[in-house]
Amino acid sequence: MGGEHISAGQTHQGRTWPGWALAAVAVWVLGVFVLTLTPTGVAVTRAAMLAATSVNTLARHAPRAPQGAVQAHPFVGSDPVGALFRLNAGRLGPHFCTATVVDSPSADLVVTAAHCVSGRSAGRIAFVPDYHADRKPFGVWVASRVLVDAAWQKSASPDHDVAFLVVHQAGNPRQVQQVTGGEHLGIGWRAEVPVVVIGYNSGNDGPIGCPRRTRPFGRREMEIVCGGFFEGTSGGPFLMAVASQRGPGTVVGVIGGYEQGGDLAPISYSPRFGHAVWSLYEAAVSAG
Question: From residue 38, how far is each of 30, 34, 50, 52, 186 by CA, in Å?
Fold first, then answer.
């Protein structure tokens, strides 16, 4: 994700309609056109209708947008949660995703979504914890390493849409976790837990948050129903049992996974954190 701000009513990817729906409509229109031009139009149209039905079934689960979904609201902030910025020649560009400091022996790790950092070099990514209206209370931290799972590298598997960044701050002997505190990394939690989901919409000056209960989505992901999470919120934490603004809560997911966080504006997804995320975390600790 990343890029321009998306207004309400659009999706994480900036598409008002999912791709499968557009394909279905196109096939339907083609069938009606053939009906008017050929003697065998009725049979061809029936085939087109069946094809459209098949296209519809390609979307995994393809849930409908719920009516009257709860909306996220401006969030007071959490010290370990911040925005990811483009960094060019030492200058910050727009923020494009969300990330969270996680507790680690190296004290220098943040977690986000893999699709946020794919194709970006480490030195071109900056993390600003607790960013609000151009205020940077803990300064700017530059990524020195980007770690994603091999399954993501091979096929961009949505079930492995998780990344860790090793970050540092020039001239500061302290690590980011020593400054902001860190959230625990939650591995192996069930798919139905109470969380606060936090994210930075592109173009907004501060974070939004939504307390909801997660629910299963397929075998390896989970979802929440809450509107307001658009482009820029990818990588935002599913944060459980937040004790205070400085934590420690427990990160059990990040906005990402299915359709890079979701095709429908009121629904956000996350991969569930299991053995693969733990192995990736251990590799990040070693790298840090």
Answer: 12, 6, 18, 20, 61
Enumerate residues 6+ apart whose C-beta is below 8 A from 101.
79, 80, 81, 82, 109, 110, 129, 176, 177, 180, 181, 182, 183
Task: Report the candidate in 229, 244, 270, 285 with the shortest Cα–Cα distance to residue 102.
Answer: 285
Looking at residue 279, its pLDDT comes to 97
Amino acid identity of residue 172, one-letter, is N
Residue spans of beta strands (DSSP E) within the chain = 73-74, 81-88, 91-102, 109-112, 125-129, 141-148, 163-168, 184-185, 194-199, 208-213, 215-217, 221-225, 237-240, 250-254, 267-271
Give the H/E segment covering residue 58: helix 41-58
User: pTM score > 0.85 for this model?
Assistant: no
The C-alpha atoms of residue 208 and residue 70 are separated, in whole angstroms, by: 13
